[in-house]
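Protocol step 4 of 6: record predicted structures for both targets in the notebook before any analysis. Target 1:
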Amino acid sequence: MSGNASQDAYAAAGVDQAAADDAVAALVRSLSQIDTGKPSRVVPLPGHYASVLRINETQGIAFGADGVGTKMVLAEQLGRFDTIGIDCIAMNVNDLVCVGAEPIALVDTILCRDADVDVIGAIGVGLRRGAELSGIEIPGGEIAQVGDVVHGWELSASSIGLVDLDRIVTGAAIAPGDALIGLPSSGLHSNGYTLARKTLADVPLDDERLGRPLGDVLLEPTTIYVRAVLELLASEVDVHGLAHITGDGLNNLLRLSRSVGYALTDPLPVPAVFELIAETGDIAAEEMYEVFNMGLGFVVAVPEDDADAAVALLGEHHPGTARIGFADDRAGEVRRG
């Protein structure tokens, strides 16, 4: 698994990840030519989860932006909007903490056809809960009624955090022999919903073969890892890399360092919802692991000597945390087994 394998089912469902990667590259080529007429404040972190700007000689501001994607379509189908705000917060703050930053604030953007008070109020309930779980503030935001652009609802946000420049976690310190620690996900989180919805389109949302209604399983909020990771960063553990497992699945590890390989010898248990998607859509395991988190929401790379301490600390916040593998010398490869 190197990040170049085909994603036939996902592309057929309407998401061409290779095209998206090319589009990002085209955008970056243009943005890299910005000339402000003064020295750049950007700390080079190509491909990482958040961007960092120097604000003085010692401190930086980390920036990120993300949304809930087509999970919002499911919220609309079920008429339940009170947890989708948690997802929006999680997708942002989990990225910020990957560079070692402490998330401090976020501003949300809601695009809609009509500003339905009940729906927006319900979205606010989730945003508040997500903010409290991650310890951030929401000082403002935007509601735009753009019926000519969207036919339902869209929720996204921009977020900021603080990080000491000498404590940025880039992933460059990862070395062969480092332990990989996995933190469990709560389900799909907020990625792969275009494929999941298309694959499960004929399965009623009240189907209870997974032990509760499928709609409840699919709307389960994204886990927020911020407090656990910040506690780890403040401990004696030497943290070499932090990865939020989102779109691209396990290949997110390559955003940290391509100078090593990542061997997942003991993956975390795979929630039953992923098995249902794979079986219903006849989707190969390789593609599943390149689209979904498959039960692995976050990964921490630490020296082998720190592995037990890291598992113990993180497990206090997220039961089920465990060693899942190690870094090796097969540069640029991610493999299971």
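Target 2:
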Amino acid sequence: MFINSVMGWISSDMAIDLGTANTLVYVKGKGIVLNEPSVVAISSKTGKVLSIGADAKRMLGRTPGNVSTIRPIKDGVISDFDYTKEMLKYFIQRIHNRKSFMRPRIIIGVPSGITQVEQRAVKDAAVSSGARDVYLIEESVAAAIGAGMPISDPSGNMIVDIGGGTTDIAVISMAGIVYSKAIRMGGDKMDEAIINYIKRKYNLLIGEIMAESIKIDIGSAYKMDSERHSMEIRGRDLVSGIPKMIIIDDEEILESLTDPVRQILDSIKLALENTPPELSADIVGKGIVLAGGGAMLKGLDVFLREETSLPIIIAEDPLTCVVLGAGKVLDDENILEKVMV
């Protein structure tokens, strides 16, 4: 008992949104202290970690043959245990100024439907990185709490959390999940759709970072106005092999994103079909809340509103909902017991 109280005193409990695209860390009493890309740069010869986070992301697509960049989190779950452990360890030590005696309690957001093997991998990685106790919470539940939804009330709350690797959809009532579904569709698949569209139409190969820039600058799920927006893009001509610049417009990107956006819509409709009538009535009144980076795709709320005839609300800060919600759970033991996986 004495040891536990001392450990609690010298540690800073934290919540982690271990995302495919970014890892966010919330420290109790301090708020969000870290938001870094989930990317690791390694030596191809030795396997040694060279760089992690923002520095590693800057190397994406620009590394020489002896260096490779990897994303150790794929589709919201660990695809490379060793490098996930290294990444977590680096982030935790950076937050604690490399004080190895700090052993915090950690709560981590995971996708709905995560397998027991994947759960164990997440927990083991966190423990290996210095955690004292590790709890898991479904990202959709954490996002709902972070968005300020009254999940403890006996009424229906619907959240759609569109991350980098997965879209988590959940209907929550009385702090319990009535229906949940995670699909492997998110920001990365949108980027991939843009890359494939440009490759198919223009025989031009662009990189991940360029595709992401296109999505952010002129990407949309719905034609918002008659004015057309365009941007210059650069890549490699697949016929000549020579670098090339072309101009594309927002209507083309709208077309390229049709399939990913439709998949999200179909999953939302499936969730609504599986929701009990009483809770459906609540959702008609409250609407559906969008969280995650994908919620920021221009016109997505308008598109979903037209297709479902329901109110669609984008969370105040969609990117941080999961980590803020997980952070709030750290402060409330009663909620933690109800919502942890």
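Step 5 preliminary note on target 2. The chain is about 40% helix and 25% strand. Residues 1-10 have pLDDT under 50 and may be disordered.
Proceed to step 6 after PI sign-off.
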